[in-house]
Design brief:
By secondary structure, the protein is an alpha+beta fold. The protein folds into three domains: 101 residues, Arc Repressor Mutant, subunit A; 45 residues, Arc Repressor Mutant, subunit A, CATH 1.10.10; 63 residues. It is 61% helix and 12% strand. The chain has nine helices and four strands. A four-stranded antiparallel sheet has the order 3-2-1-4, covered by helices on one side. Helix 5 packs antiparallel against helix 6. The protein is elongated and about 90 Å long. The termini are far apart.
Length: 216
Amino acid sequence: MIEKRITAITAQKQNPDRVNIYLDGEYGFSLSRLIAAWLEPGKVLDQKQIDELVDRDTKEKTLQAALKLVDYRARTEKEVRDKLSKKGFESANIEDVITKLREDRMLADGEFADSWVENRNQFHPRSQRLMKYELRNKGISEEQIEEALKNSAGDDALALLAANKVKNRFAELDWQGFQKKMMAYLLRKGFSYEVVSPTIKRVWRDLQNEENIIGK
């Protein structure tokens, strides 16, 4: 088997966490400092060892890229898988990383769905139908979606929350203008007409009562 001798190990200028390995006076490949920690000039490597080093480094790069993604914000398995695939990482390495992150509880689709629904309900209310659509697009299973939505308010309550968050935007409009603007807004949030219509009437009535109280 052909063997090659390490003649130099140099840090990369643009990425000091990686080093370039020179074999027999020529550039061979690059590695992370972690993978290359046991290497030194003069050491002889055969092709099997070289292949194993490059493979370990590729897996490490895949893992580090995934960690950056989940450190930035919570993500689903599908989101991490899609991001890594777009970056050109091999599918086998991606699946290994997904498995590791899942085992380490750094990826948990069920918990993600629970948090997503809670956040939507509190800050950006929308219909359960629209939340289901969003979660499906993120790769959450139907079972996990249904479980997460068990803790969600119903559409009547969610529509009222959504309307109350924006009612002051339209408070100066007359009934026709208010109804038109509010209906368009709530329909965009995924609520049905059957839910939207009584919600608008209720919020309008509450606004009129508030104005009457203030005017007294």
